[in-house]
Amino acid sequence: MLTMSLPAHIELNNGVRMPVLGLGTYLMEPERARRSVLDALSLGYRHIDTASFYGNEREVGEAIRESGIDRDEVFVTTKVWNDDHGHYRAKEAFRRSLSLLGMDHVDLYLIHWPMPGRLETWKALESIYEEGGARAIGVSNFMPRHLDELLERGSIAPAIDQVEMHPFLQRNDVLDRCRRSGIAVEAYSPLARGRHLDDRTLAAVASRNGRTPAQVMIRWCLQRGVAAIPKTTSRERMKENLESLDFVLPPEDMATLDKLERNSRTTTWDPHEMA
Ligand SMILES: NC(=O)c1ccc[n+]([C@@H]2O[C@H](COP(=O)([O-])OP(=O)(O)OC[C@H]3O[C@@H](n4cnc5c(N)ncnc54)[C@H](OP(=O)(O)O)[C@@H]3O)[C@@H](O)[C@H]2O)c1
Asked: Structurally, how many domains does the chain consist of?
């Protein structure tokens, strides 16, 4: 039994509650995704992140049904991909995603990247939200100026901005911008895809706290009020990552991690450069 030392949910700007820790499913081939989602749900995960681009929505939906857990208890996110921007295409893409997931709604629908046409796409998401197809809508990889544009031209403020974030890429500009407008931040690649797990400073913080480097990276996000969706197909690592909920990093260790910024991005595209 975990002792929760911080709220295990984030309340979004429309009152919807989202578990702070979820399972990411990028680069999980479909059958692997089905098994991993089943494992995660059996361990207590109640938040699953997928996307049309990942090609595993069908298996994610099947695993949730197979788990026997009430649909209402699992927070499901999916995303509209870059070649489906524009009002009509985005609505079609959403219908496809729902049909693959085998669901009548998702909990969160995101614009995956800030491509040209995003304002029209956002209007489509607004209408999906108003029709009850998504309990919340948001964006991903939106930098402050993309958010400014959306807040100025859209009718509904995004509930979430999902961005790459970890101690080696801190994105404080995004965090500040989101905080000012009540937008929740969700960290993707919170483990930097494993690239910095052997960093000496990180290892020292982990050892001082009797934790693993992965748990420290995830916990650093959570203590900044940021949700995190680490991906793993290993049941042991799922458990390890979930246990990031049950300890607290002291302020001096948070300050040490705050000094690890390296602008170390794992994606090929730099969202700051997207027009
Ligand atoms: N919106 C976007 O543009 C976007 C972009 C990228 C990712 N995402 C989302 O964010 C999720 C997470 O990001 P990510 O998959 O890029 O990277 P990540 O979660 O930072 O790292 C995943 C890697 O870390 C390994 N790992 C997981 N737990 C570990 C642990 N406890 N100890 C050591 N290694 C561990 C995994 O290996 P094993 O699987 O072998 O355990 C995998 O290689 C994605 O799956 C996806 O849902 C969104």
From this structure: 1
Closest ligand 1 atom to residue 215 Cα is 31
Report whether 117 contacts 81 (CB < 8 A).
no
pLDDT beyond 50 at 130:
yes
Residue 188: active-site member: no
Give the pTM: 0.97
Look at residue 188 and tell me if it is in a domain: yes
Ligand 1 mutation pick, 220, 232, 264, max ligand atoms within 8 A of CB: 232
SS3 state of residue 227:
strand
- Atom 36 (ligand 1): residue with closest C-alpha? 232
Catalytic residue among 45, 54, 109, 188: 54
Domain range spanning residue 243?
A: 11-264
C-alpha distances out from residue 267 to 96, 220, 263, 270, Å? 26, 21, 12, 7
pLDDT exceeds 50 at position 4: no
Q: For 149-157, what is the mean pLDDT? A: 98
Is 52 a pocket residue for ligand 1 (Cβ < 6 Å)? Answer: no
In a domain, 269, yes or no: no
pLDDT digits (tens, 9 = 90+) for 18-40: 999 999 999 999 999 999 999 99
CATH number at residue 237: 3.20.20.100
Answer yes or no: are the C-beta atoms of 190 and 229 closer than 8 Å: yes
Sequence letter at residue 225:
G
Percent of the chain having pLDDT more than 90? 97
Q: Ligand 1 atom 31: the closest Cα is on which residue?
A: 237
Residue 207 lies in a domain: yes
Q: Is the CB of 140 under 6 A from ligand 1?
A: yes
Residue 274 belongs to a domain: no
